[in-house]
C-alpha cells in the first residue's frame, strides 16, 4: 500500500487503503464503510494535518470548475489553486488574493487558513461564500461560515463557492531597508500598499520590503523573465548552495549572497504571477500569528535567535486582515504572521527557540506549518473553540474524520 509523505518529507504515514471516488455517491459509501478516513490533497502542509492513519482519500476525480460568474466561482474541492487561477483568467477574473504557492487543493488551503499578505484582504477562507461537505453519515451539509477554517475535522468538502473580482495587474517594487530600521516601522510598512511582505535572509544586514500596487499598465517583459529566472534558481541553484550549510562558517556569507538576489527592478504582471513564488527548495517551515501591534517585537526576537544559529533560509513577515472564523489564526483582529524557515539540520533547535519566544507573545500557530501545540494550548488561544467542537460533535459524532493530529490539538 503506498505510503503517505507530505511535500517536505517531514511527515510519513501508512494508510490501510487508498480510495479515489469518482462521484459523491461513491464518496458517501466510502465514508459510511470506513472506520476512519482522511482526505489528502496536495500534501503541501508541514504539519500532519493531512496524514491518513486508516483510509486515505484523494479527490482528484472530484475536481474542476463547474460554474463561473462575474462575482462567484464554484469549484470542486479537489481542484488545485493553480488550475482555478487559470480557469478564472480565461474569464478575465481572479481571486482577490492568493498565497505564495499555488499547488494546494482548494479545500486544503481553506482548511488551514492559508493566506497571502495584505491588511486589506483576509486569508483565502474569508472569500468563501458557501461550502458543502459530506458529513460523518455520508450526508450532504453546508458548513457554518464560522468553521470555514475546518482542519478537515467536519467532513469531506465537496464544493466551495468563492468570491472573485475582475483580473488585475500589480506593480512590484522592492525596498532595501536595514533590518534594525524595520522594527519601529512595521505598522506603517504593513499599511503602505494593498499587498506588502517583508523578507529577511538570516545574517544579512538588510531586509527587503515587497510592495504590490494595482496598475493599468501592461505586463512588463521583465516580470515573466524574472519568474523564469527565479524558477530555475529555486530548482537548480539554491538547493546546491544551501547544501553548503553543513559547514556553519559558510552560512552567513551564503545568506548575504542570497539576499542580494531579492532586490529587483520594478515590474508589472498579473496578480496571480506577482503574488506567488516558484516552488522553493524542499525545506521546513513554522509560522506564528500575532496581533499587528506585536509584529516589531516578534521580528526583533526572531532576528536575535538567528544571530546565535546557522539558519540558512528566509524569515518572512506577512500581514492578514482579521476575521471571525472560529479557528482562523487571524480570528479577532489584524495579524502579522511571522514565518521561520530552514533547510537541513538546524531546524529542531531553531524552531524550539523560535516558539519559546513566540509563545511568550501569545502567538497562534499556522495549522499547515510545523507545530507542537496541544489541545490545552489551542483552548487558550482560540476562545471560540467550544463552538467548533460542538459543530464537530454534530457532523462527525463517530469521529470518522479524526486523526492523531486532530486528537492532539482538539482533544479526544
Number of helices: 13
* Order of the strands making up the biggest sheet: 16-13-15-14-18-19-17-20
Poorly predicted regions are none
Helix content: 25-40%
Estimated share of beta-strand residues: 15-25%
Q: Which structural class should the secondary elements be placed in?
A: alpha+beta
Tell me, briefly, the overall form.
globular
Span of the ends, CA to CA = 28 Å
How many strands appear in the DSSP assignment?
20
Mean pLDDT: 93
Rounded to the nearest angstrom, the radius of gyration is: 21 Å
What does this structure look like?
The relative contact order is 0.15. It is built from 13 helices and 20 strands. By secondary structure, it is α+β, with helices and mostly antiparallel strands. The mean pLDDT is 93.
How do the helices and strands line up, and which of them pair or pack?
Elements: E1 4-5, E2 12-13, E3 17-19, H1 24-33, E4 37-39, E5 55-57, E6 67-68, E7 72-76, H2 81-90, E8 93-94, H3 106-111, E9 128-134, E10 140-142, E11 156-163, E12 165-166, E13 169-178, H4 179-182, H5 186-190, E14 195-200, E15 206-215, H6 221-242, H7 251-260, E16 267-270, H8 271-274, E17 284-291, H9 295-306, E18 315-320, E19 335-342, H10 347-360, E20 364-365, H11 375-381, H12 385-395, H13 404-410
Parallel strand pairs: 3-5, 4-5
Antiparallel strand pairs: 1-2, 6-7, 7-11, 8-12, 9-10, 9-11, 13-15, 13-16, 14-15, 14-18, 17-19, 17-20, 18-19
Helix pairs in contact: 9-10, 11-13
Amino acid at each position: 500500500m503506498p505510503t503517505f509523505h507530505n511535500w517536505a518529507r517531514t511527515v510519513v504515514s501508512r494508510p490501510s487503503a487508498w480510495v479515489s471516488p469518482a462521484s459523491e455517491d461513491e464518496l458517501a459509501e466510502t465514508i459510511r464503510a470506513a472506520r476512519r478516513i482522511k482526505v489528502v490533497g496536495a500534501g503541501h502542509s508541514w504539519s500532519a494535518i493531512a496524514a491518513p492513519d486508516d483510509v486515505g482519500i484523494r479527490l482528484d476525480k472530484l475536481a474542476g470548475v463547474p460554474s463561473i460568474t462575474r462575482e462567484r466561482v464554484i469549484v470542486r474541492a479537489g481542484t488545485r489553486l493553480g488550475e482555478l487561477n487559470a480557469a478564472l483568467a480565461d474569464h478575465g477574473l481572479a481571486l482577490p488574493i492568493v498565497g505564495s504557492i499555488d499547488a494546494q487543493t482548494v479545500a486544503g488551503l481553506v482548511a488551514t487558513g492559508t493566506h497571502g499578505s495584505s491588511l486589506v484582504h483576509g486569508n483565502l477562507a474569508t472569500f468563501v461564500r458557501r461550502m458543502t461537505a459530506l458529513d460523518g453519515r455520508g450526508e450532504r451539509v453546508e458548513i457554518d461560515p464560522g468553521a470555514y477554517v475546518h482542519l478537515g475535522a467536519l467532513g469531506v468538502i465537496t464544493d466551495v463557492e468563492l468570491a472573485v473580482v475582475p483580473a488585475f495587474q500589480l506593480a512590484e517594487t522592492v525596498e532595501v531597508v536595514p533590518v534594525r530600521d524595520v522594527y519601529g516601522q512595521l505598522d506603517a510598512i504593513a499599511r503602505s500598499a494593498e499587498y506588502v511582505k517583508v523578507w529577511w535572509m538570516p545574517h544579512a544586514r538588510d531586509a527587503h520590503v515587497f510592495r504590490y500596487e494595482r496598475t493599468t499598465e501592461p505586463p512588463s517583459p521583465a516580470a515573466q523573465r524574472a519568474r523564469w529566472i527565479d524558477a530555475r534558481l529555486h530548482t537548480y541553484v539554491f538547493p546546491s548552495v544551501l547544501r553548503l550549510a553543513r559547514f556553519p562558517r559558510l552560512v552567513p556569507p551564503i545568506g548575504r549572497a542570497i539576499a542580494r538576489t531579492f532586490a529587483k527592478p520594478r515590474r508589472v504582471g498579473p496578480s496571480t504571477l506577482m503574488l506567488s513564488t516558484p516552488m522553493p527548495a524542499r525545506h521546513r517551515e513554522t509560522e506564528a500569528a500575532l496581533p499587528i501591534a506585536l509584529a516589531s517585537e516578534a521580528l526583533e526576537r526572531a532576528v536575535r535567535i538567528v544571530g546565535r544559529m546557522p539558519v540558512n533560509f528566509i524569515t518572512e513577515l506577512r500581514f492578514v486582515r482579521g476575521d471571525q472564523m472560529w479557528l482562523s489564526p487571524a480570528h479577532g483582529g489584524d495579524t502579522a504572521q511571522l514565518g521561520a524557515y530552514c533547510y537541513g539540520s538546524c531546524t529542531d533547535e531553531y524552531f524550539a527557540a523560535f516558539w519559546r519566544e513566540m509563545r511568550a507573545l501569545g502567538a497562534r500557530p499556522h495549522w499547515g506549518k510545523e507545530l507542537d501545540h496541544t489541545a490545552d494550548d489551542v483552548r487558550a488561544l482560540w476562545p471560540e473553540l467550544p463552538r467548533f467542537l460542538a459543530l464537530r460533535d454534530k457532523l462527525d459524532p463517530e469521529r470518522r474524520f479524526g486523526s492523531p493530529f486532530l486528537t492532539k490539538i482538539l482533544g479526544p
